[in-house]
Every structure is written in structure tokens, then in C-alpha cells.
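ENTRY TYPE: protein
CONTENTS: sequence, C-alpha cells:
***
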Amino acid sequence: MRMIKFSFPAIFLAFVSIAGNIVSAADVADVPLFKENTRILFQGDSITDGNRGRSADPNHILGHGYCFIIAAKYGSQYPERKLVFMNRGISGNTVLDLEKRWPKDTLDLNPDVLSILIGVNDSGKNVPLEQYEQVYDKLLADARTVNPNIKFVMGEPFLLPKDGHKEGHVRDQDVKKRQAIVEKLAKKYNAPVVKFQRLFDDACKHSGADYWIWDSVHPTYSGHQLMADEWVKTVAEFYK
């Protein structure tokens, strides 16, 4: 059998070519919703807040969570589109808190895309389910009244107990009921639901809960990356 010899330069160039094709393939991944001059606003509680800055400093303004990851990827990938990413999540917020600051922190910002993740604090602070739904519904209705073309993205509130979900556990069951409300509202307003609970439950098949969420509620950096990827996937598939 004749031996075929490859020189190191030839092998190196082939590797670079393959790597270049992989990078190019990644670069063409798109979110059709992100059109030129689109304003994307993330709203919610501490999970969205991500310890964001409260000044105009662009290095900290989006926090260090899933919002930052999404904005960093697509802001750098499509500079010609002049996308504007904004974060107004505030730690500890419930829908009642959102309602108080909705005009200033949402409506006045005139978003084209509004992503909301709220509910785990409503569960912890015992906001009645009926009130949670009614206020959440009103917030969405007000946003659509101001901008009839606004596109919503609904994040599913989630809980990831370190010792696993327990059948009949009060907090677990309450969060599930709020997830059902989010699903109901998403259908009413024709919006996608980012299934964060399923995402983290599936992730726990590969690693422990505290690898993804360190205190049952707040994701680690690995968890935030999962959230960002799932958000992009869900939005890209829904708004084709």
C-alpha cells in the first residue's frame, strides 16, 4: 500500500479552513426578530437584573446574566443593524412592582421586543394567583396599546430545589401554577414561552442542580448561558 504523506503546513491549512467554515456557519445563525434599529427590552426581577449598573456605563448596563449574553452575541454579530438592548429588571420585584414602574421603565422606552421573566418572587411573597394573572395581563395590554406591533417574549418562572422537586411541595406547586398562567397569557397575546423550568430540569440529568442554580432561584454563569441559548432558540423558531 502506498503511503500518502502530508506536510505540517498542509494539515494546518486544512484545519484552519475547517475551523473557518465552522465559524462562518455560526455567524449566519440569525434571529429574524432582530431587524434594523430594533429596541429589545428585558424586564423582570433579580434573575434579569443581573446586578446591572444604574448609570449609562455600557460596560455594566446590562448586568452579568442571560440578557448580557444575548446582547453581546447579537450586538457584535450585526453592528450594521444598530440593535438597542435594554435591561430594567430589578431584584425582588413581583408583578405588583412592575405595575408601579411600568410607564417609566417600559412604556416610555418604546421597545419593539419586550421580554418578561417574573413570578418566582410573586410565589415567595404570596401574591395571589388571580392577582398575578390580572396584573400581568394588564401590563401586556398596556404595552400593546402603546405599540400595537410590539412582540412579546414570555419567560417561564422556575424553581430548582437542590434536593429535587417534591410531589406536593407547596412552593413547587405554586410556581407550576404561575407557569400555567404565563402559558395562558402567551397564547392570548400570541407570544412564545421560553421553557426555563424544563431547560433546567433536563440540565440536571447531566449535573447537579447547584451547578446550574446555586440557591434554587438564581442561576450560575453556566445557568445563564443555558437561558440565553434557550431564549434565542425559542425566539428564532417562533418569529421566523
Observations:
- The CA atoms of residues 52 and 63 lie 3 Å apart.
- Confidence is low (pLDDT under 50) at residues 10-26.
- Strands lie at 39-44, 84-87, 113-117, 151-155, 193-194.
- The two ends are 53 Å apart (CA to CA).
